[in-house]
Amino acid sequence: MNTETTAAPVAKRVPAERTHHGDTVIDEYAWLAAKDDPETIAYLTAENAFTEQSTARLGTLRETLFNETKGRTKETDLSVPTRKNGYWYYTRTVEGEQYGIHCRRAAPDGETDPPMPDDGTPIPGEQILLDGNALAEGHDFFALGAFDISPDGRWLAYSTDFDGDERFTLRVKDLATDEVLGDEVPDTFYGSAWSADGSTLFYLTVDESWRPYRVWRHTVGTPADADEIIYQEEDERFWVGVELTRSEKFIVIEAHSKVTSEVRVIPAANPTGAPAVIAPRRQGVEYSIEHHGHRFLVLHNDGAEDFALAYTSADAPGDWVPMIEHTPGTRLEAVDAFANHIVVSLRTAGLTGIRVLPVGSTDSYDIDFPEPLYSVGLDSNPEYQTNTIRLHYASLITPDSIFDYDLVTRAMVLRKRKPVLGDFDPAGYEQHRDWALADDGTRVPISLVCRAGTPRDGSAPCVLYGYGSYEASMDPWFSIPRLSLLDRGVVFAVAHIRGGGEMGRRWYETGKMLSKKNTFTDFVAAARHLVKAGWTSSDRLVARGGSAGGLLMGAVANLAPDAFAGIVAQVPFVDPLNSILDPSLPLTVTEWEEWGNPLADAEVYGYMKSYSPYENIAPVDYPAILAVTSLNDTRVLYHEPAKWIARLRATAPQGSYLLKTEMGAGHGGPSGRYDSWKEEAFVAAWILDRFGLAS
């Protein structure tokens, strides 16, 4: 390996043989998977030094972009307080501090809009529950996994991660005394649930493949080695979650694979009870439950591709009685129960929506929203006995907004809109919905935002973002850092490609398994359409995506390198075949229902090999590529982009390839808000440089 920073690092080649289904492949960079090998760390360090040297001339621009984000952000701020059992709960941020401060204050009867200043003025009666800045002191990384207050408000269960590997240490704090108890449990996962009386805490741990598979029962005030396993999932395709229903009547244990689920419940008033199954798992049937009085609401896809809503008895679960029949094209995504209303989150025609079902009435209705492009969903709604729900709303030009919606009067009140300091005016920007035509005739939606009056003559630079996996929808969202690009004339576009969930379950099904290539060809079709429609030109277009969207970036680099001037791939899943062939790696077995099982199926093996970015690098002219990863990522391991960049350099050495590795972070990158702004400024400066806008 050449460690000179005057030239790109050259990774050594150590041939490693892989044979499956009669196909032998030599992977000369497999050695980079050895995280503890000093040579691996030396190589990553050399890549970081080369990237820093190669982008040093952008240092002033990076600082400018960081300061623009900082200058537009209200650094000392307060979230909209949420009422729960006699308290207002909220989070404060303080100028200069990386993390939020979680607080509460007593909520007098009848108080509906608490007078709480958001300028840092001391709030009378405030109790600091958890200060992320104090917890993070002395650490380069900090993340919370659980933050769960017992129903009586006495106990706080919280968990911390200081490495980015998503292994959390769980603790319990007595909010009456501010004492952290000796109840300490290492290596826990996200998710927890309290019993009704707060005496018992349920939590999760993972297996060697990072799969949450055990639910534990812990009695407050006792050592962790006395905890009991109350459920263990043996099928390696299934993950397990645990939560308390909004009604606080049931502990819910959900086991789910990519295509199948099974739910168990324990009465919250009887935490030592055995979990009872709502409906036994059936391959291909997904369902989730919500408690509502004498019944469980069941959201399911049994004979309902886009899901239907039913209910069953809470005392003796059995047959599912229909409530909302299946409507093709209207994807029901979640159900939330309140004492007098049922609220369904859905999507249709590529947009999210909210449907309200008053209890005892057939007069259901959908809430209307003013913009042609937007994203809406339920925000924090912990109280069951309420006629008001809280909504989160945003669009590409409307900052994140919190509304309270009266379910009886249907009045909507804006509680807070994320401040954007400076001269920001939504009227100075435009958002559009456009459609590309895929190779098979499918219309693919594209969401766009730009400065008002941006020319449509192909001269504007453009960033095209995509994801396209796991039925995840990239609904319109607002971004303060994005304004720095828009104000420099850049168009920002999102391709809502197959594999995502924007257009319903079929949209997802036709972008996975042996139809996965639709995801990539849809994105290329979107890129070609933007050029044809005059939004940009191919030499002014940068593609961006992360994680499974990073797989997309690698695939389209091979599929259509001429379509892009640059590609940003963040924590990219660019070596999918090697990873999915190894069941010992985190997530692999659970992923077989998303990608297929190349170990067992020769057709899947061949299909994945035909699109794997790492497997298909060729001696062609690639666009400039920036890959960003994290050493402690447990979802997409750092060695995937490291191997990818190494092979790109060896195979197509005329290209420009940079690798940046966060040496102390995980899948989400840097954890502090200022650090994340700096990371975004780094990427944005690299993008602007591709457009000749770095000066």
TrEMBL record:
Keyword Cell membrane: no
InterPro entries tied to this protein: AB_hydrolase_fold, Pept_S9_AS, Pept_S9A_N, Peptidase_S9_cat, Peptidase_S9A, Serine_Peptidase_S9A
Ranges of residues in domain Peptidase S9A N-terminal: 9-414
Ranges where the Peptidase S9 prolyl oligopeptidase catalytic domain occurs: 477-692
Signal peptide (from-to): none
Keywords of this entry: Hydrolase, Protease, Serine protease
SUPFAM superfamilies named in the record: alpha/beta-Hydrolases, Peptidase/esterase 'gauge' domain
Family: Belongs to the peptidase S9A family.
Name listed for the protein in its UniProt record: S9 family peptidase
